[in-house]
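Fill in residues.
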């Protein structure tokens, strides 16, 4: 009766969870996903579970050379987990690893409760956080793809096409029906996402035409991106001390000290071993990072594991194909350390690192000046001499509204005064297989 009252009142039920984290050694870390036993990994795992709305009853750890094909863990460890489930009356067992469909089913039969792997856990958090139409579609798409791999032999008790007396049944098995329905729904979502992607692409093209550069905020989840975004833009984007507090991308126009304008994009936070299906599903959202003129990599400077987090974020950036985009590290949360706000230069003489506090606002002015200085250096201003055969390049420059003035030489060449983002200009020249010296 008490349970019914909670459900009727819309009160969220808090589940108790048994957590499992197995160390497969440093050599197998990448292969077996999340196979680590460090304090930081345990803390992050527990934070993921807390973000999903569950309470950790206990964390069971262990070491193996490789996963067991049947239970992922050995039979002794599986019995230990089963005992813990009964002892704590747990609702779910969550593995900080990727489980195969067969392993998941075997473990559920053994434990007599639900079993989730790391991918399903993160998908659940994303489903709770998604607010926009696009975000909800992307989460559903990732969930359906994950679910489709779990349908194998999931309905064998309804199988009616094995042949033999008494085994001949209706034209379609339950398993085939589920597969067909999933396939139809996935196609529907992909069509809707294609439409949203076209709208986003139109917005990006418009910003390119108006020469408004895009700056993308990226960083490990809970590094303070959304707090920094709110300080710079004066927006009210939701920010909290939890993993994946912000999921949907947000774009705002910001004016810099030298009258330049930029579009600042806040994106979803990254995390260790982010499932590939999620990276693929959110590729459209993260397109703002790929197409950005500058990446601000927000790092929690007070975290002793910041170097590891930096590596994980850069891995995702590389997976997205944005490793060539200029990057400035924003060392956030100096209010928790003894650091003073300052700017560090890299080997190329350009700003490489800005130390600030998005909470107190210390160092924000230096960050704005740094962004302005970078775009001032990354803007091409000069005269071009184009042969009539390069009419396509001339048309592209006009389409991007980069031409300030134009005249024609005695030889019939186009003489153009141009102001354009260097990266965009380089792309144009590359398509025409030209160098700057050939058009000056």
């Amino acid at each position: 009766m008490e349970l019914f009252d909670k459900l009727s009142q819309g009160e969220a039920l808090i589940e108790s969870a048994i957590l499992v984290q197995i160390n497969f050694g440093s050599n197998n870390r990448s292969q077996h996903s999340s196979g680590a036993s460090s304090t930081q990994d345990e803390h992050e795992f527990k934070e993921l579970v807390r973000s999903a709305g569950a309470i950790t009853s206990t964390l069971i750890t262990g070491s193996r050379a490789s996963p067991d094909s049947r239970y992922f863990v050995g039979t002794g460890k599986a019995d230990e987990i089963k005992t813990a489930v009964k002892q704590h009356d747990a609702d779910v067992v969550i593995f900080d690893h990727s489980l195969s469909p067969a392993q998941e089913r075997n473990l559920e039969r053994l434990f007599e409760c639900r079993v989730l792997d790391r991918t399903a856990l993160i998908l659940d958090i994303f489903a709770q956080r998604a607010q926009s139409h696009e975000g909800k579609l992307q989460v559903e798409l990732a969930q359906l793809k994950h679910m489709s791999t779990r349908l194998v032999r999931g309905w064998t008790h309804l199988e009616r096409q094995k042949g033999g007396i008494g085994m001949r049944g209706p034209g379609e098995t339950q398993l085939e029906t589920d597969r067909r329905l999933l396939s139809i729904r996935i196609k529907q979502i992909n069509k809707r996402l294609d439409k949203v992607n076209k709208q986003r692409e139109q917005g990006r093209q418009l910003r390119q035409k108006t020469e408004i550069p895009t700056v993308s905020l990226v960083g490990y989840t809970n590094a303070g991106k959304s707090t920094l975004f709110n300080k710079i833009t004066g927006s009210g984007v939701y920010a909290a001390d939890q993993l994946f507090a912000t999921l949907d991308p947000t774009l705002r126009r910001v004016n810099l000290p030298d009258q330049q304008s930029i579009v600042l994009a806040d994106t979803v936070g990254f995390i260790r071993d982010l499932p590939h299906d999620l990276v693929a599903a959110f590729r459209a959202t993260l397109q703002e990072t790929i197409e950005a003129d500058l990446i601000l990599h927000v790092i929690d400077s007070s975290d002793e594991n910041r170097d590891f987090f930096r590596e994980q974020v850069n891995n995702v950036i590389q997976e997205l194909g944005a490793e060539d985009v200029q990057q400035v590290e924003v060392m956030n949360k100096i209010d928790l350390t003894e650091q003073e706000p300052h700017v560090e230069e890299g080997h190329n003489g350009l700003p490489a690192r800005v130390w600030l506090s998005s909470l107190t606002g210390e160092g924000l002015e230096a960050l704005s000046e740094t962004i302005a200085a970078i775009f001032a250096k990354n803007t091409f201003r000069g005269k071009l001499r184009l042969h009539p055969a390069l009419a396509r390049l001339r048309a592209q420059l006009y389409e991007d509204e980069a031409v300030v003035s134009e005249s024609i030489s005695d030889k019939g060449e186009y003489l153009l005064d141009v102001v354009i983002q260097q990266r965009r200009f380089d792309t144009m020249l590359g398509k025409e297989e030209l160098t700057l010296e050939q058009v000056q």
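The first helix runs from residue 2 to 8.
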